[in-house]
Amino acid sequence: MPIITLPYTYLERLVGADRAAILDRLPMFGSDIERIEDDHADVEFFPVRPDLFSVEGVARAMRGFLGIETGLPVYEVRQSGIGFSVDPALASIRPFLGSAVIRNVSLDGAGIESLMGLQEALHWAVGRGRGKVAIGVHDLDTVTPPFRYLASPRERSFVPLDYSEEMTMEEILEQHPKGRDYAHLVRDFPRFPLIVDADDRVLSFPPIINGELTRVTGETRNILLDTTGTDQKAVQIAVNILCTALAEAGAEIESVTIDGQDVPSLAPMERYVSVQECSDLLGVELTPDAIADLLQRMRFGAEPAGSELVRVLVPCYRADIMHDWDVFEDVAIAFGYDRIGADLPRTFTIGAGHPVSHITAAVRSIFVGLGYLEMIPFTLTNERVLFERMQRPPSPSALRVLYPISEEQTVVRTDILPLLLEALQANKHRELPQRLFAAGDVVLGTGTYQKAAAVSIHPGADFSEAYACADALCRELGLTYRAAGSDDPAFLDGRRGACVVDERPVGVFGEVHPDVLLAFDLEHPVAALELDLRAVPGYPGQPDTPSPGAR
What we know:
Elements: E1 3-7, H1 8-15, H2 19-25, E2 31-36, E3 40-45, H3 55-65, E4 77-86, E5 96-103, H4 109-125, E6 133-139, E7 147-152, E8 157-158, E9 167-168, H5 169-175, H6 177-182, E10 192-196, E11 202-205, E12 209-210, E13 223-229, H7 232-248, E14 252-258, E15 261-263, E16 269-274, H8 275-282, H9 288-297, E17 301-304, E18 309-314, H10 324-335, H11 355-369, E19 373-374, E20 380-381, H12 383-388, E21 411-412, H13 417-426, E22 434-444, E23 447-457, H14 463-476, E24 482-485, E25 491-501, E26 504-512, H15 514-519, E27 526-532
Parallel strand pairs: 4-7, 4-14, 19-22
Antiparallel strand pairs: 1-3, 2-3, 5-13, 5-14, 6-13, 7-10, 8-9, 10-11, 11-12, 14-15, 16-18, 17-18, 20-21, 22-23, 23-27, 24-25, 25-26, 26-27
């Protein structure tokens, strides 16, 4: 979750209250104070509240929460007379554009830091790493309207931000730090998005980098905002949040005409919510007047609409309000969770640990006693790690991800041992010995069950160490087994064994095969084991199938 730095001097000026009062109430607002320093506090906010990712947004919310200024903030939007045209060729590249003119900006050091921090936080929370939305902030006085958002040839050149010489857009992707970070968003397109002014000077190469021409400084007084993306609603949300944050700092907002349409409007959204539904959900009997008052403290416009409904005006920057229950959550925050009494549930039951939980807890206790350190590997992995590197044949029953977003996460793990070897690879720079274990779910077909695995890497790791560890684990779990030979190709022939229960292999142990070590780029021997926990006494069996007519 994003952590926002709140400088006390700037925050107190915007809120109209001292830091002690603000810091005392912040946790009750749904935030977590990470650090309190001499001149600032670092506060963590939920990703669903991007309007709080700036000092200005926090100050606006706190003025209402503290009762200093309640009700719906109203933002006047005048027409700027500035136009933007959008190239139809961008329809398959990056089609959506949002913009605004922000005048009479007065940004000191804290204000600039807040603006830049808000921009980057929105890139993460709303923009999904600039893929969905990218934001450009420009000094309007350095360029000439009208502006064009076009699909440019890739060889077009300009001076990117923080550089002094021109570079082609291809060179920016290869050489500029931001270009290398975000090249994957545009690299495969035949043309690149570009914003230019009436004199064909470059303002921005979205979603990569702005031009040096329009750098924003402490002397900037008028700002042109551009927001481009692949999702129109997300683009609009980013524009609304940025405009209203700057308006809170004293700036004036003007609309821009994009292909005949004026944006942004910053108008609130109207909805009606049920008084009874709110009371039932919160467990507190509230009247329409009480709900309206509480919502006004959360900076909504609200008034009773009869005895059963409340008319609510949702601020344009509240992107998280998608359901009436989102409104009710704000009612609860304003009412105070500390004021909601605790009641015993109407149905009283006594909980008990699941047998699987008891078994995995025992496994953890045993391995810790043997000197192993627990890790929790990812549930998703890939066939290269699970099978190819382990020299094991691919399992036809492996559960594959239908639409994976990464080549690294294409299948649900069928074993835990390969992931521990991958962890050893990632920790090659750490001192030896390293002893790791993990216990958790694996999936085969559509069935989920549990396995435990452990690895030990150091120059003296051998079969005896793996056998001793496997024997200790089985003994402490009360599992009676017979040691037998194994043909698992992940282990070295002659230095591998199997735990057999009822003539069925349920575990494997031994020295990891040198070819497997090379596949994981490991330089020392590894003693390892893996055990199917379904063999452990007390593991629950499959539920019985109900007989016909059973209830």
